Queue: 4 jobs
Job 1
Amino acid sequence: MLSQGRDELRYYQFDSFDHGLCQAVFTRRGGVSPEPWASLNLGGTVGDDSQRVRENRRRALAALGRDPGTVYDVWQVHGVEVAITRAPRQPETPHLQADAILTDQPGLTLMMRFADCVPVLLHDPARKVAGIAHAGWLGTVRGVVLATVEAMRSQFDSNPADLLAGIGPSIGPDHYEVGAEVVLQVRQAFGADASSLLVGRGGRMFFDLWAANRLQLERAGVTHIETAGLCTVCHNDDWFSHRAEHGRTGRFGAVIALT
């Protein structure tokens, strides 16, 4: 990923993506929120003041030349529901519960929020479709990226071989310790491949979310995949991390839009 900046605000972009696409994963820098949400918190349900969140959102979108009125976002619930949208979400309209969003409309800006879970950005330059998915451990074992690619195929006639995918900053494999329940579900979801995703160290088990989502993209037929390799725990000064900050933190944003 390539780091970009405007004043104090900083964000990263996948360098393998097509130039006809607006895409960014924002760091926590450049906003107006105080601790523990300092400073570019885009999460509206973590205790921060709503006016500060709106200002942070305005700043982030302005850095990309996008209007807040073009945004479509969802209530993320660690599932596999894929929202297909062709219009912005109006402020008075309740959020749809979903963990992936797709559109073929260049006037829309798709946005999701993260604090250790994996942002997965997708672009079909042939069919001109853009999407974003939210993959925590539960969404990963349930197959949210598989569901997203399948929705691109069924709803937009996308060929998975044409897709460009980006696996964004999230908790890395060295820090994502998981318990027996998660280990069991990883083994059930990935079968023989689970051994390459679960690493035992010092009597503890760690789950590689980056490799797991890459594997699922490959299983779905996606071959053009860029992994950021940026750990939100290792780089807590740049990224909100639910685990590193013991649940008291903000949410960084990921955005994708057709241009």
Job 2
Amino acid sequence: MNAQQREAIVQALWPQAAARRRGVWGVLDCARDPWIYPALVESRLEFLCLYSGRLAPALERVAPQLVELHPGNRFTARWLDEGWGRSWGILVRIEDPSNLRHHLRKFLKVRDEQGRSLLFRYYDPRVLRAYLPTCTADELRALFGPIDSFLAETAAGDGLVEFGLRRGELEVAVRVDDALSQQAQAG
């Protein structure tokens, strides 16, 4: 990612008018790269595992982690510089994060046609980008809940896709090089 793309993504994530009201939280897929978990620990940011209970250290290191991100933080910069385009996780924008972990945990498991319980890796940006446009209005309302928007890297890793729920329909905005290059409504 070049410096212009990085700055465009930072500006899209933390527009000055909204910076004080809505936090940006990362849902990191620590299984994607062995660097992620140690970097979280080293960052001294407060982070929470989406899995519950006491976990074996090996599982904790690869589990999805929830962390609040800040524009000037070293961990945030490192994710954008080294992890962007490598499917390290997704972002959510939310005004009141008090129940965010609880809300996100609801979607970790799904049932297949045979009734088997499966892990649902919605926090992988490749999965999220494919999944959200297929959701019904009820599924979207359940998934978004208190979340203002879901954000993920573009497939090419050169921008940011923002998914919002407006009047019950999925709204998708793609930002590349600080320009709103595409806006679509899916329903």
Job 3
Amino acid sequence: MKIELGKTQQLIWKRTTEHGAYLGPADSREEVLLPKKYLDQGHKKGDVLEVFVYKDSEDRPVATTQKPRLELGGLALLEVAQISSIGAFLNWGLDKDLFLPFKEQTHKIKKGDKCLVTLYLDKSSRLCATMKVYPILETVEEGQFHPGEYVNGVIYEIKPELGALVAVENRYHGMIPRQEFFQNKQAGDTVHARILSIRPDGKINLTLRDKAYLQMDVDADQIMRKLEAWGGSMPFTDKTAPLVIQKEFGLSKNAFKRAVGRLMKEGKVRQTEDRIERCE
């Protein structure tokens, strides 16, 4: 057994120094320091401790009893703690923030943003983050998910020509196609989405919208709130350009027309040549 960087592992307390305890596998002379501040008074030499191993600010392997939010091979949505001249630093639950180089960023980020990342070892065997998570996501097997099911995911990249790329359940390839991507979402946002279809390659097509007959009520309420904000009359109709509808309401042109039709049928609004008005 070897001590592994980037992994939580069980190691034996072998010896003690003024700096802390040296831990290692039972069948190896390899050791790593667990600093004194992490030692529990209830533990003693010979005990097995569960620790995470990474490198300190001087690039020395070190153990900690703190629990990181991310390990090698995993995915996590982490907050940007700061931006520097060489990259970003992410809060991952340890005293030392996780470095995210500029070259591993798929879009511009700022302090306070959240980004989905995985962990890798660079050429100097230092743990770093990358936003290039596409290669580690998996495809689904037949019957594993079904159209109509709801899943959770994280948008990790937006491609205007395709749509939004989503890590479904932090594990599987998903995408909200461009024609379904109307809501004001950005990379780093978590979503609760409905499965539209499973592609032949095992990737999942998603939508943020409910089934049409359910979504229509939601859309109609949204239009009424917008109408109230405009004082009961607004300069939009079912002939307004699709891009304007998308920008103002976050809806497709068809969804907008369906919802307006519902409101007109219920006698809540009327439509003139260039406006929608609230019925008194």
Job 4
Amino acid sequence: MHEKTPYDAGALHLLEAAHAAVREKNLEQASAHLEQALSVDFESDDVMTAMKYVNFWRERERQIEGISHAFERGQFFLDQWPVFDEFAGRSGHGCEPCLQAIRQYAFGSALMAFESMMTDNDDADAGLLMRIGRCHKGLGAFDRAVEYLEASAADQSEDAEIVAELADAYALVNEMQAAKVFFREAFFLDPQRVHLEELESQLIRALADRVSEQGFDRAELLEWIPVYGVLLGVLNVKRELRSIEYGKLKQSIYALERELRDGRTPKGVVEPRLINRYFWLIDHYLATREDPAKVDEVLLKLRAVNERIYRQYTN
């Protein structure tokens, strides 16, 4: 008896044609190819998976018909990508060529929308530059992503979302020293503004996965990532603070210590944020060769806040 091969040749040809249509942003044509492929080989897991992916985005195309503004159209595609990523993860059988074609479709569509605004506005703001950089990152053009994200961060150096995106892009081009510096910076600025679902580098994904094993909720997870990043030796590239930054750090520590005492903010959020600032202060004292007594004073405060973290940090 004839043994069934993994692919019928006709179905494989139609599947490849569907991928090409997706990359060309013609989902209707892609769907037609997949319908034909199913009629040839109705047992193909890859064809079934591709059909699920295409149907997901065809439904989004119907939603986007009512969005006229280019920025909102581009943002819609970016916002839907994490939704699709989760959907694809639940779909069971994976199809990497299908996924790559969809990635080209989604991020390519977003890029077209955002770049149309660049035509009308040569002085693009940091937010637009960040989104164009994110699109290039999604398309695998990591060097281009770095270019746009560097321009964005130069304009908004204290925006945690932008700084995290730049760190992610540096990691993807294997500039690991810069990636670690900027990831640490982003989580110092505001952990709640770091969008983990938009970050793709193994550096940050592996760290986030390790920290999530502790069972934190999302808000707590974001605050604990920089703490464990130091404890696990991942975010181990430090920089010296400028005098104005040192002053702000001290003020921030005082404010967080009051919040922790008063209980005005959930402990699961304020405690790791305070601990992270203790780490920064200790690093500053070591870098500037301050009196060791100052380091000891901070360590005593750390021990009072969380003895387990203190022991991990000092051992």
